[in-house]
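As described in the Methods, two query proteins were run sequentially through the folding procedure within a single session, without resetting any intermediate state between them. The first query and its resulting structure tokens are shown here.
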Amino acid sequence: MESSSPDSTQAKQDLIDPKQLIEELSVEEFNQFSDDYYKKLPSPESQLGKPFSMEMHAPQLLIRLGLMLESLRLAPGMKVLDFGAGTCWISKALWQMGYSVIATDVSEEALALGRRLFEDYPIPNKPPCTWETRLFDGKRLPVEDGEIDRIICFDAFHHVPNQEIAIKEFCRVLRNGGTIAFNEPLGPHSATPESQSEMREFSVLENDLDMEALKTLFHAAGFDGPTFKVAASPGYMLNHDEWLQCKAGEAPPSMTKAIMQFQQNNGIFYFQKGAILNDSRQSEGLKHDLQCEPKRLELKVGEIRDIHIDVGNIGESRWLNENEATFGIINVASRLLDFESRELLKDNTRFRFPTEMEPGDRFEGDIPIFVDRPGRYWLKLDLVAELVCWFESVGSEPILIEVNVTP
């Protein structure tokens, strides 16, 4: 066995050990080092142009973000926590896509730059949703229990010194059925020259992530997973012969090697809180069982009459009763139809459920109905996920009520 040279032995001794840093420094000190890092940036404006201001890294940053988002099952109006948001470039992208965003970081300086990104560099469209920044003290997320639909953590979790506490916080703030997505370096990350330089110059933690240890912590907190996104190492290309192999249904050895290298050195992975559950911001999984009495009404114009309904959520999605910009809110709705042709004349009434309804839940009670014009009509009673779909369009049966309206 060859012995190590004095120079290589000295180099190993000089390596900064992230585990030793975690033992020696407090969470508050790591928070301060992170804030100092952003205060010392020679050109903060370059952070405001991220990822496009980072010419060498922009393609991979965009690819990784796209891969993460693709499997998060996002829908407009969802509330997303951008954990370790830094200067908020991902938060702004999510907001522009129609998601409400909470950007959180331990650095107030980074979040101040993020607010500049939102306020000083407007986008062409103004999304019907909100954004905000919240400072994280490194211990308790500034978020209410169950406030968040999805969490995204882009190249940030390996900076966290107290991972077990952070994971428990993820579980506390994430709704049941929600998902957290990570993009993180795997493999011997702390020993790379770039990581050693960051830790030596800025005291920023560049930890190695142990997937088996992470899995244990996430499972203990109440998560399932992980699952991994399949991707190839950056720069991998197929030649024509390899492309023909793929077309014939065979994976060339180079592809297998590139995928293995990606999984060994990088990670796009997900943990799940509870069973995967869509909600009414998506049409998939919406189905009702609707009953009502009476089936015939005599009304005066504008008179409000209560009818009794019994409705069950027999689909596979949660029904929302509140959300920003009403997107995906479930209402019991009536539409006025011509009596002879049954053509739609107008949307008529809306009734919102008092609480969310999980699959299997039922609601029974009285809802108000009125008609503002005299005549003989059909009232079609159905459920609507606002700005998404009517339940009839995805397979549920509406109810027709005959109404005679006198002046």
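Immediately afterward, the second query was submitted; its sequence and tokens are:
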Amino acid sequence: MAGIGFELKKLFRRKGLFASLRAYGYAGIICTGPMLLGVVLQFGILLLCGWVNAQREQQDLLVCMITYTLLFSLTVTSFFSMPVTRYLADMLYEEQEQTILPSFWGSSSMMLVLGCTLYGLFLLVSGATLLQGLLCLWLFAEMIVNWNAMSYLTAIKDYRGILCSFLAAIALAFGLGFVLVVLLGCPVLEGMLFAVTMGYGLMMVWDVVLLCRYFPQSDESPWTFLRWVDAFLPLAFTGLCTNIGLFAHLVICWAGPSGVQVKGLFYGAPYYDVPALIAFLTILVTSVNFVVSVEVNFYPQYRNYYSLFNDGGVVGDIVTAEEEMLAVLNRELRFTALKQLFVTAAVLSLEGALLDLLPLGFNDLMHGYFRTLCVGYGLYAVGNTVLMILLYFTDYGGAVAAAVVFAVSASGLTALSMAFDPVFYGFGFLIGAALFYLVTLFRLDVFTANLPYRVLGQQPIVAETKAGHFTRLGLFLEHKKGTEREERANEG
């Protein structure tokens, strides 16, 4: 994320309320663009479906298909996203920008092949029609590229272009949905699913154009990033386990007593899903604040501290830099937690009046789920911020341990809660998020208590190159690519 911090710092130097709102807006779009787009589109779809008096079964199936597609694509990309981000950061540090765009094509291709194969098999037996299945698979492929592109977009400074792609995607999806369903009378489910697919497609094309405009084309190997997957395998499992902990409670509720079979293998739990979707929005402030506070305030101190080790700084300067860095870190983490606390408290205070204004049919049980999940998501948001700091300090072991605790506890306790009264369903995720927050905070405190030893004493004496399954796969693909080149050259 360091690539965007310098530009945000320039934006925050500008005086005035509008300048601050602009900086926060850019940070929000960059960090939460595809997810926020999904939430906005979900609500927009429901409003349009209600306008044309669509059958409830069609609305539920449409929401299920989009939700399944988004979550499945997130799960596939979550395994590769952190190693790819580490590879991107290393290449930028080494000024090897010619390797970045090939790695984007390579990583996207690998995730597309893996994800489309698995999701395609699911769609074949899901009960969806051929047209519905093709549209879902199309949307899934777009989302794979979109999620992967977000790892690369952090290095791009064209914030206006990123913001325009986000707004254009929303406009196209709503506009096309209105034309197809309201004006032309197309089937609601297929028409809206096509509109959403086109909206995400526009965002994908726009973002890829930005990447191609910023990074140079080259003949570098697109599979080099696979070595980073082997070298930083804990990062891959950290991303995967965090994703499981964040969304497994939804899937478990679909399969539980409150789940409803919409069609075939598409299940939902409307009384739980809708409160969870709205509660998730309350953590966006922490996602934005992480980028703003860490990138703008903490990262310069962090860079200064580590540069003293690299450039031969004296002990006194190192101690002073460490104290200043940790003081800034503690302040920023405290402010982040307080901001999330205030947002959660404000939402809980006003949720009764505000949610009743929305045409979502909230009852007492849904209000209870919303309050419980708001607290759970708030704890997760702060815990995830601490997790990112652990990754800054390269404490990959501590990070993956915390992520595993989150995934196991949130999933296991949610499954356990299915045996009790429905009012307790959200508490499994809440307790899992609380454990996640406590483990990350405890680990950060232990790790930073003796930071010079962590920086110097735990480094390997001899550089090691880890060559695992992913490295061998990359070598195989590169060899195959070279063989094909030779064959084409001989034929020519």
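Strands lie at 260-263, 266-268. We note this only descriptively and draw no conclusion about the first query from it.
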